[in-house]
Amino acid sequence: MKGRFPFFYVISAIACLWACTSVVSEPEPTPSMQPTPDIEPSPTAQPTPEATPFNPIEWNTLPELPNAQFSGDAVVLGEEIHLVGGRISDSAVSPYHHVFNTLTNEWRSAAPLRQTRWNLALASVGGKIYAIGGDSFLNSVEIYDPAINEWTIGAPMPTARQHIDCGVLDGKIYVIGGLVNWSQFTGVNEVYDPATDSWETLTPMPTTRHNAATVALDGKIYVIGGSGAASDIWKELTAVEAYDPLTDSWESLAALPASRFKPADAIIDGMIIIAGGFESDIASSSVDAFDPLRGEWKHIGALPRKTIFSNVVSIGPRLYLMGGCDGDFRSYKYASYADINF
Hints:
By secondary structure, this protein is mostly beta strands.
């Protein structure tokens, strides 16, 4: 702080001179301009703290698949992951069936499908695996029994279709949407009951589409993203809808942050995870999570590489990623896992 001008002393000196002399005093000098006192600067405004970002996903490498694979599907039986169906390259398909043991990190072969299929729906119920529909516009159902390592035939699906997914609730398999031919897609909602080997048709999905992610959680079936519009059968979508079997009704939920074609999906800790797929016609590595309680999406990390038509499953908090392909349909043999903690 600078010192102030000694104004008091100037005034005192002038008074003394006036009293002691008869000399006409000079005009009183104008006091010097007082310096402006230093102003304490205002505290800098502090930004509103942001929410702590989710820790980046750390991926760990697993033994590669016996053969490259994409456009198939994967399910969990016990501590094993079954990869079924799909393509081994852009020009070759296979009745693919390989099994990964998550305790020993080893692969083994299992009985192949009776019928080659890809872009199918795959589910596990009661210790068995159900392979449903798929290319080329199939309605057939195959049932795998690991006890005898054999596939048998189940009741055919009412609507033949491909580019489908499914969700399992209360021991029943819900297959929703799909392509019924190369110029028509559907919102058909059909449920298969393994206990009776029979199908039932339910209220169709409001947004007709194909190549969507379909998952079951807390009594509802969620259908996420996919493709399909009157102007373009391959137009990517952001729509998210949930089906309630108790009321046989649908509701619309918070849309995806960006359109997504054929993302892989899994459930961890009550959250729906989608990974990869096409995003604006470009292969994506994005991993996003939907919280049904909050009705909110958030980005939580990335896959090791941009991937479409991949296989993703979860066991506890561990997310497994297997196979898939890049945006030019070059197939992968990669396998990896990451532990997701919300």
